[in-house]
Each structure stands twice: as structure tokens, then as C-alpha cells.
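TA notes, week 10

Several of you asked for a full example with nothing omitted. So below is the full record: C-alpha cells for the whole chain, then the designed sequence directly under it. When grading your own attempts, check the secondary structure regions first.
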């Protein structure tokens, strides 16, 4: 674009006019000044010149012919702050700006030499030290004789004018460059729309000739599909006078492509309103148009992802106007996005004004730093939200809200449980310190964590609490054979290597030289992954017991081994979660993923995008995942779907998914809840430990009572003068005590729902009547028991002992609910079916219902779903273990029945136990067989004994020999199979343990049934989780510890063919 050349400025004219004025002034004062400069008389008019100059509004000065300044008026000194001595001569130049001084001095000397008009602009220092632009103009003075007398001049402040001219020059320069660099095409047209001027940029884009765009020739460059609507829009504007705004495509000459343009024009009117010219521009909007389209598509995709998120997301610009508000935000805040988008945040949520939320958000806006803090939900004030606010590139803020109420509650509950656990640990420490046996817990490095005085009694002084390995170097001990024990054979190193060391006996020599027999046990403590995380060591002084009878020693060893096998494992609580976001295709591939996938799972992005999502899904979860994908393919949303994903290291993470369908894809957001699930498990384990702490004292008390009887009886049996009748009485007492210990162990296993039940047929009505007196003793005299039996000959097949224990547990629960006073109603009746209980389908067939109804306080509705959970209790700490109703539930489920509960707060509770009814009548002979008959001789029958424990195997072999059998002992199943293969007809019956290394007794039994179907087999076990969970699998089971008469009875029945073996 071109413009007319600029006109001469008025600045030079003004300067010349001022010079003329000064020349006239100089001519008028030249003579007086010359006379004053030399010598001579002065007229009164001449004498008044300094007074006139000092009152002039401008600075004035006079020089002699050499250029020496001989006069400066008062205005000069006021402006510059110089003194007369500083300014006269050439001192006035010192007030000139350093950058201008040389130029001003050169200009003055050049003019003085030429006796010419002097004019220069420079910056002059003011009295305050600042500089201002001035115009210094002077004319030469000549005497009457024509002689040169010097200059007379004036200095004018032109600072504002110079700055204005500078701004004008910058504006003109900026406009010129703007036009030259503008990528748009400016144009003009006459009132009829004919092009009158245009930018050369149009020719560069279209390739038209210079004269071609005039008139309507520009339209030839428009795309044929856009020509008609474009001309119509121009015609409409020409008719109406409205501005033009139209988009069309033109053909680009350089590339041949069609690019989108936007043409805009506005009319210029005269005073009467008539259009005299159109001014317009054409701009290339091709890239922007497609970028806007892509942006709209990405925004739509992002909105779909955000609407599927579990968290609330919102964003606002620098003016606090809301720009994003997803579906979850609508739920959190109770408003729809259509109501709030585009409105200021503080207008939508006025309750947040002048609160901590506003202060924090404004801090994020000002500092441009992210911040996370907690707020309360406006819709649900009882819910806690975690708000994460982060600055955006456009100057606004993006914020997310996560409901952390459950997590906060779980953390609080976990903290409370940990505090209780610490209290129980203190109690347990006190209990351990008072145990008569030595107990020590060590970590994987052998450092003692907890030990009691009894244990430290055997350790050299100064060792605890250092590493136990240091004690072993100073510990001297020998085994039964008199061989000194080497360090690696001590129980602690062996337990830390993963071995279970049971009842190893050492002859220990103390530092004082005293020798004492001790029994040492060590059990490895393992994590949930099976890694050894420490060991439990138990040491017992058995110096006196070594002289006890062999039978008692073996019995104690068996009991020690059983106790050692009951060590609990510790669980771990895992850390917080990450969230996974992805776009999935229905072809089984991920289309896009966020960086959280790599952080959580450990894979790189390329691997995840090119691996079918089913491949890293846990095999057990794939079918369920397929069902969820099918729902999404049908257009349904999914929420709270959990599956497990395999990490790069082979581990699995539990992810909770929310998914929404899209156009040919679906969008998913997964939250890593692995640590959350682990935190829940840790809370349950802490509650279990709290109850276990209470249970430990009771179990220890009961076992100590039993051991007291055994200890006292064995001490008396040592007396040589003991009568035979009393000797038999003490032996019977030991036998009965062992039975009671076995029953106590069975009850503990039943509490844990791990007991292998021994079902038998009995009449429920008879047992309820028979146990009523015992229940009265348990509940106390202030509670009245009312029994109502509506069913006669109510036969069921279940474990009688566990049935009675369940009745006692329900009665104790009722007693506590009534606070020792009220009415307990016990009913027995027949039921045609078992109703549906807790959402589970009922059972077909006849059932017997045994119900207990109390008049107690009742159970709150929110507690009912948890009352059968192990260790759950509504009682105060220290007043309940939470195992009673768990035993009832476990017994009912293992017996093929169930237990139901109905409760009304303030009125009472009814527990109903359902057991399946049978037609078979009780066998009255089995339990009443006399002991003498049971001990009938084995008559030389051949028994294959399979037992991995040396002491138990030798003991069983000795018993069978004493009973008249011909036993052969195999230390494991492989040896047993070799003996059978060598002589298939060489045995009449097989007697095998269940829990053994390698092949278990159950697998061994099934294999014998396949190979030797006619050979009977009897299994024996103190505890087996397989038996407890799945039953006896048709085998005869002899529970440890067993009596000789029980073993004899079972073997005799089998070898006589009195019981057919069941199917495998």
C-alpha cells in the first residue's frame, strides 16, 4: 500500500521565524551591548537591558566575538541551577547532556566562525538533575562600522513537542510495517461493489494479473461451489448497507489447493448517510477453520471421558467464568452444567465467597502453583471432598474433586485399631513375660524383638537385645548322642532358613558350668507371599521331664508340635492408588492411554497400545470383562467394575472401572484400589488381633489347667509305693485330660471354621432337652428358659459336640444382650424347606429349625450384616472375642444348613439354626461299646502305617504291636507306594496321616482306591484345611490325638468288612 509523501513540517518554519525575531532583537541591542562590552557612556535605555532580559520568559545569552559567553539572564540560572561563575565563558556547555555536548559545541563554533545564524536542539540539565529538550537559536551582532561583535541568543523548552513528534514517528513507522507485513488482503470498492484497490497479496495467492481483480474480476478466483452464495451475500449487503461477512474458498496458484477465506467489509458514508466507499479485508482462515473443527472434536471426546470419570471436574478462565462442568460435578454440587457454564464461579457458588476455598483458589490463580486441599460437599455436607486445583495455560484454573469420605473413615478406623493393637501388644508382652517357658521373637537378621525372662535365663548375659547369633557363639549344647551342636543347627538359624524346628532337645551348659536339658522349638514367621519375615523361638526347661515315662514325653512332644503349627502370619497394608484413563476400541486394543498406565503397571506406552487389553487381564477376570465390553457395545454404561491387571513385574493390581460408550469406541477410567482393598484387609486383621489378644489369655488358662492335671499325675506315677488302683486312676486322669485338650483344640478350629466335623445321627429334640439344664447354669438364675418342642423324632446328621457348642454360644449371646435378666425361649420344629437367608436361595427338603428368642436390647440394622463375621463384636473391648456367632455360622454352613437372625432394637432378637432332617435313626451301639471290647487283639492283621513324623510313627507302630497287629511303618507316601507295589497282597489295611510333605494323605488314599480298590484305608489328622473345607471324601477319619481303643475299633470294623469304602 502506498501513501502520499508527507508535507514539510511546521517545525523548521517556526525555528526560522524565531531566528528572525532574534536577529531583529540583536540588532536593537547590539550597540548597547557593544558599548557595555567595551567602554563608553550608556544611555538609560541601554542600562535597562539586563532588567528587561532577566524578566523575559525564555533563557537569553550574549557572547563576545570569540564565542566567550559574557551574559546569561536570570531564567538560565533558575533553569540549570548553575552559578554565574559556573556558566559564563564556556561553562554553559557543562549543563548540556553528555551525549549532546560535542554536537552542540561543534555547531556553535561552526556558526561563530561563519558569522551565520546558529540553531541547535539538545538536552539541557535542570536544577533537579533531569534533562529536557531545548531549542537554542542565536543571531550574529555587528557594530555600526560593520565589525563582528558576537552572538545574542535565546533558549526555549521544547521537551513536550519533541516527545510528541517522537511518538508520531513511532506510530507512523508501526503503521507502515503493519501494512507491509499484514497477511490479510485490504481492498476498497465503490458504492456499487466494484473493486477499486487491493493489496498485491491477492495476486500472490490467486495468480491473477494486476488488472484482473478490478470491478468483479476478483470473483474468478472463488471456488465454483462457493461462488453463488458469496455473490448473493455481497449483493445483499450492497442492497441493505449492512457490513459484509462471508466465508469462501479460493484456488491458490502456487499449490493448486482450495483454501478457506473470510471477507469482511464496512461502508463509509457521507454526511447524508449515503455510502461513498466500501473498505474491506480478506484473511486466510483455512488452518484456523480446520483447527477449530479438530478442537471441537477433541472437546467432545474429552467431555465424554470426563463425564465417565468418578471424580468431579470443572474449569474456569482468568475471569472466573466456568468453562468445564462434568456429570459427576452436577451430582456433587446439585446443579446442571447448562445453568452454570459461562457464569462466574462466585455467582454460581456465592456460599464460597470470603471462605478458605476462595482464598486458596485466588492463591493458585496468583502464584500459578497447584494446590490440594479438603472441602465439604454443598449437597452432602457429611461427605469430604479432596480438591486439586492447578493453573491452566490460558490463565484460568482446572479443578478436580474426589470423594475421600470412605478413605478418611477407613484411615480413622485403622488408626483406632492400631492403637488398640498397641494396647493388646502391651498386654501380650505382660502375658509372655509371665509364661513359664522361654519365648522370643526375632527378625530376619536374628535381632530379638520380644523375649521374656524365662528365655533370657538361658542366654548368656549381655546378649539381649543384641543379635541372637552372638549368643549362639557362646552357647554350649549337646544332643542326645553327646555330639556338640554346631551354630547352623540351632533352631534360630534353621527357622530363619524356613525350617520348622519342633521340640529339639539340647543338653545346655550355662556359663556357671551347670548342665540342664532344654527343649528348643523354632517356627518361621512368613509374610502373605511366603517370605520368611522372622521366627518364633520357644525354650523349655525339661531337665526333670527327661526322667518321666516315655509315653508322657511323646505326648508332650506331639502337643508341642501342634502348638508350634498354630503360629499366625502378619499381613501388610499397601499404598495409595493411581487412576487410569483410556480410549478402547471394540477390536480389543487401546487407542489412547494416559501416563498413569506406565506408572501403575510398569509398561511403556507402545507396549500397552499394541497389546490386546485382555492379555494383561487376570485369567479369572476375562469372562466378566467380556460381559462388560458387550454391555458397552450395546450402548450401556458400566460403573464400579473391578478386575485385576498384570504389571510388568508379573504382579497384579486391582482396578475399579467406570466406562461409557462412544462412537465406535468406549472410554474407561480405572482407579487403582489395590492399596484400598489391602487397607480394608489390614483393618480387619487389626480387629482380629484385638480379639486374639483377649482369646489368648483364656486359651492359655485352659491349657495350663489341663497341663496341671497331667503334671501332677505324672509326678505321682513316679512313686514306687503307689497302689495299683490309684495308679490306674492317675493314668485314666491323664487320658481324660488329653481328650479334653483335643476337644478344646477342636472348638478353636470350629471357631476358625477349619474343623473337620464328625457327623453322627442324633435326635435334636432329645439333645435340646438334655442341654437345657446346662444352659440354665450358663445364663444364670435371673433368666427364665422356656422350651417348646413341636417336632418328635427330629433326626439330623451333624457333629454333636459342635451342635452343643453352637447352642451354648447362642445362649451366651442372648444372656449378654439381656444383661443377665429376662426370658429365653427355645423352640424346635420341623420345616418343609429352608427359607431364603441373606439373599441366598433356600434349601429343598425337610429341615429342623432350632430357634432362640431373647428379650434383650436387639441389634441395630447396620450391624446385622456383620454379626457372623469372625472377630466382629458389638461388646466393649475386653468383653467379647467375636467368635461365638462365627462358630454357629461355620457349624451351620459345614453341616449343610444355615442360620438366620431377626432383631428389633429394644425388643429382642431371634436366632434360628436350620439343619437338614434325615430318616436314619441314631446308632446306639457305636458310642456305647465297652473299652474292653475295643481293645480286642488284632490277630496278626497286617497294617501299613504311613506317617512322616518319626515319634508319631514309632508310637503308632508300638500301639498296633501291643494290640496284636503286624504293622509296617513308611515315613512318606512314596515309600508306602513302593511297599504296596512290591507286595500288593501283603497288607490288610492302610493307616495314613493326612498332612505330609509332597503327596498328601488324601491324594495317597485316592491313588490306593484306583490301584487297590479292595484295600481299606483309614486317615488320621490333627487338622487339615482340605478336610475342613471339603469334608472326608468318603474316607474313615480318626482325629488326633486318638486313643488305642479308637484305633482298634476302626481297624477291626474295616478289616471285617463291616463298612464299605465310599467313592473317591
Amino acid at each position: 500500500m502506498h501513501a502520499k509523501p508527507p508535507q514539510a513540517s511546521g517545525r523548521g518554519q517556526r525555528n526560522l521565524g524565531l531566528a528572525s525575531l532574534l536577529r531583529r532583537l540583536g540588532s536593537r541591542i547590539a550597540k548597547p551591548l557593544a558599548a557595555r562590552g567595551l567602554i563608553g557612556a550608556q544611555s538609560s535605555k541601554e542600562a535597562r537591558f539586563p532588567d528587561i532580559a532577566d524578566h523575559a520568559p525564555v533563557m537569553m545569552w550574549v557572547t563576545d566575538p570569540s564565542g566567550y559567553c559574557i551574559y546569561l539572564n536570570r531564567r538560565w540560572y533558575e533553569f540549570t541551577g548553575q552559578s554565574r561563575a559556573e556558566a559564563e565563558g564556556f561553562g554553559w556547555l557543562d549543563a548540556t547532556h553528555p551525549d549532546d555536548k560535542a554536537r552542540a559545541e561543534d555547531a556553535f563554533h561552526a556558526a561563530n566562525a561563519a558569522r551565520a545564524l546558529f540553531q541547535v536542539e539538545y538536552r539541557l540539565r535542570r536544577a533537579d538533575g533531569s534533562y529536557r529538550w531545548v531549542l537554542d537559536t542565536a543571531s550574529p551582532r555587528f557594530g555600526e562600522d560593520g565589525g563582528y561583535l558576537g552572538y545574542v541568543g535565546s533558549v526555549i523548552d521544547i521537551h513536550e513537542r519533541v516527545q510528541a513528534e517522537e511518538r508520531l514517528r513511532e506510530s507512523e513507522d508501526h503503521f507502515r510495517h503493519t501494512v507491509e507485513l499484514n497477511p490479510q488482503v485490504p481492498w476498497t470498492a465503490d458504492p456499487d461493489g466494484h473493486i477499486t484497490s487491493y493489496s498485491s497479496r491477492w495476486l500472490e495467492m490467486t495468480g491473477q494479473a494486476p488488472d484482473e481483480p478490478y470491478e468483479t474480476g476478483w470473483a474468478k478466483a472463488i471456488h465454483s461451489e462457493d461462488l453463488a452464495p458469496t455473490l448473493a451475500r455481497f449483493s445483499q449487503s450492497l442492497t441493505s448497507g449492512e457490513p459484509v461477512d462471508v466465508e469462501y474458498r479460493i484456488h491458490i496458484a502456487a499449490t493448486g489447493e482450495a483454501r478457506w477465506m473470510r471477507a469482511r467489509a464496512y461502508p463509509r458514508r457521507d454526511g447524508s448517510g449515503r455510502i461513498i466507499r466500501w473498505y474491506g479485508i480478506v484473511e486466510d482462515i483455512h488452518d484456523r477453520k480446520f483447527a477449530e473443527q479438530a478442537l471441537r472434536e477433541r472437546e467432545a471426546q474429552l467431555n465424554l471421558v470426563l463425564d465417565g470419570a468418578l471424580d468431579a471436574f470443572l474449569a474456569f478462565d482468568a475471569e472466573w467464568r466456568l468453562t468445564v462442568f462434568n456429570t459427576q460435578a452436577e451430582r456433587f454440587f446439585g446443579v446442571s452444567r447448562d445453568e452454570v457454564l459461562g457464569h462466574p464461579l462466585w455467582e454460581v457458588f456465592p456460599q464460597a465467597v470470603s471462605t478458605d476455598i476462595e482464598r486458596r483458589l485466588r492463591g493458585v490463580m496468583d502464584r500459578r502453583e497447584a494446590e490440594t486441599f479438603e472441602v465439604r460437599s454443598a449437597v452432602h455436607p457429611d461427605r469430604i471432598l479432596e480438591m486439586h486445583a492447578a493453573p491452566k495455560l490460558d490463565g484460568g484454573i482446572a479443578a478436580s474433586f474426589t470423594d475421600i469420605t470412605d478413605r478418611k473413615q477407613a484411615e480413622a478406623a485403622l488408626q483406632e485399631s492400631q492403637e488398640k493393637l498397641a494396647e493388646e501388644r502391651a498386654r501380650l508382652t505382660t502375658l509372655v513375660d509371665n509364661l513359664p517357658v522361654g519365648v522370643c521373637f526375632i527378625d530376619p537378621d536374628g535381632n530379638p524383638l520380644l523375649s521374656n525372662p524365662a528365655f533370657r535365663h538361658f542366654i548368656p548375659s549381655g546378649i539381649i537385645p543384641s543379635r541372637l547369633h552372638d549368643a549362639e557363639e557362646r552357647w554350649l549344647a549337646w544332643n542326645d548322642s553327646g555330639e556338640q551342636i554346631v551354630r547352623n543347627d540351632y533352631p534360630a538359624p534353621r527357622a530363619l532358613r524356613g525350617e520348622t524346628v519342633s521340640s529339639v532337645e539340647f543338653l545346655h551348659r550355662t556359663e556357671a558350668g551347670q548342665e540342664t536339658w532344654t527343649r528348643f522349638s523354632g517356627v518361621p514367621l512368613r509374610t502373605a507371599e511366603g517370605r520368611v519375615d522372622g521366627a518364633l523361638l520357644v525354650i523349655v526347661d525339661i531337665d526333670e521331664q527327661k526322667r518321666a515315662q516315655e509315653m508322657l514325653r511323646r505326648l508332650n512332644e506331639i502337643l508341642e508340635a501342634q502348638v508350634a503349627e498354630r503360629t499366625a502370619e502378619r499381613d501388610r497394608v499397601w499404598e495409595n492408588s493411581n487412576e487410569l484413563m483410556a480410549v478402547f476400541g471394540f477390536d480389543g486394543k487401546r487407542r489412547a492411554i494416559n501416563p498413569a498406565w506406565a506408572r501403575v503397571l510398569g509398561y511403556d506406552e507402545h507396549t500397552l497400545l499394541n497389546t490386546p487389553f485382555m492379555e494383561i487381564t487376570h485369567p479369572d477376570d476375562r469372562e466378566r470383562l467380556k460381559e462388560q465390553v458387550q454391555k458397552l457395545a450395546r450402548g450401556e454404561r458400566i460403573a464400579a467394575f473391578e478386575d485385576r491387571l498384570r504389571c510388568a513385574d508379573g504382579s497384579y493390581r486391582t482396578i475399579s472401572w467406570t466406562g461409557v460408550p462412544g462412537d465406535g469406541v468406549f472410554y474407561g477410567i480405572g482407579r487403582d484400589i489395590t492399596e484400598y482393598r489391602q487397607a480394608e484387609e489390614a483393618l480387619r486383621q487389626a480387629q482380629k488381633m484385638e480379639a486374639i489378644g483377649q482369646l489368648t489369655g483364656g486359651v492359655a488358662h485352659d491349657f495350663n489347667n489341663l497341663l496341671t492335671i497331667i503334671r501332677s499325675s505324672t509326678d505321682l506315677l513316679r512313686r514306687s509305693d503307689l497302689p495299683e488302683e490309684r495308679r490306674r486312676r492317675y493314668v485314666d486322669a491323664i487320658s481324660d485330660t488329653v481328650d479334653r485338650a483335643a476337644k478344646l483344640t477342636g472348638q478353636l478350629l470350629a471357631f476358625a471354621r477349619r474343623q473337620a466335623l464328625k457327623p453322627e445321627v442324633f435326635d435334636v429334640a432329645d439333645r435340646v432337652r438334655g442341654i437345657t439344664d446346662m444352659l440354665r447354669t450358663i445364663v444364670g438364675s435371673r433368666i427364665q428358659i422356656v422350651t417348646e418342642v413341636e417336632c418328635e423324632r427330629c433326626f439330623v446328621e451333624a457333629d454333636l459336640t459342635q451342635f452343643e457348642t453352637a447352642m451354648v454360644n447362642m445362649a451366651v449371646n442372648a444372656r449378654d444382650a439381656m444383661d443377665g435378666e429376662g426370658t429365653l425361649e427355645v423352640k424346635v420344629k420341623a420345616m418343609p424347606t429352608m427359607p431364603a437367608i441373606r439373599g441366598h436361595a433356600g434349601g429343598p427338603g425337610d429341615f429342623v429349625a432350632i430357634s432362640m428368642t431373647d428379650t434383650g436390647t436387639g441389634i441395630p440394622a447396620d450391624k446385622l450384616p456383620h454379626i457372623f463375621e469372625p472377630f466382629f463384636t458389638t461388646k466393649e473391648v475386653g468383653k467379647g472375642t467375636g467368635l461365638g456367632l462365627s462358630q454357629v455360622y461355620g457349624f451351620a454352613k459345614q453341616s449343610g444348613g444355615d442360620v438366620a437372625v431377626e432383631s428389633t432394637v429394644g425388643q429382642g432378637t431371634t436366632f434360628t439354626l436350620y439343619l437338614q432332617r434325615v430318616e436314619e435313626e441314631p446308632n446306639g451301639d457305636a458310642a456305647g461299646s465297652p473299652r474292653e471290647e475295643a481293645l480286642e487283639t488284632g490277630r496278626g492283621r497286617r497294617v501299613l502305617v504311613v506317617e512322616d513324623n518319626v515319634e508319631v510313627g514309632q508310637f503308632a507302630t508300638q500301639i498296633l504291636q501291643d494290640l496284636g497287629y503286624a504293622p509296617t511303618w513308611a515315613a512318606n507316601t512314596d515309600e508306602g507306594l513302593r511297599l504296596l507295589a512290591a507286595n500288593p497282597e501283603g497288607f490288610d489295611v492302610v493307616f495314613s496321616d493326612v498332612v505330609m510333605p509332597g503327596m498328601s494323605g488324601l491324594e495317597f488314599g485316592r491313588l490306593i482306591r484306583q490301584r487297590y480298590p479292595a484295600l481299606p484305608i483309614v486317615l488320621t489328622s490333627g487338622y487339615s484345611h482340605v478336610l475342613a473345607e471339603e469334608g472326608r471324601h468318603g474316607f474313615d477319619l480318626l482325629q488326633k490325638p486318638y486313643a488305642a481303643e479308637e484305633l482298634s475299633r476302626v481297624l477291626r470294623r474295616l478289616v471285617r468288612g463291616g463298612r464299605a469304602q465310599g467313592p473317591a
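The chain has a mean pLDDT of 78. Use that as a sanity check on your answer.
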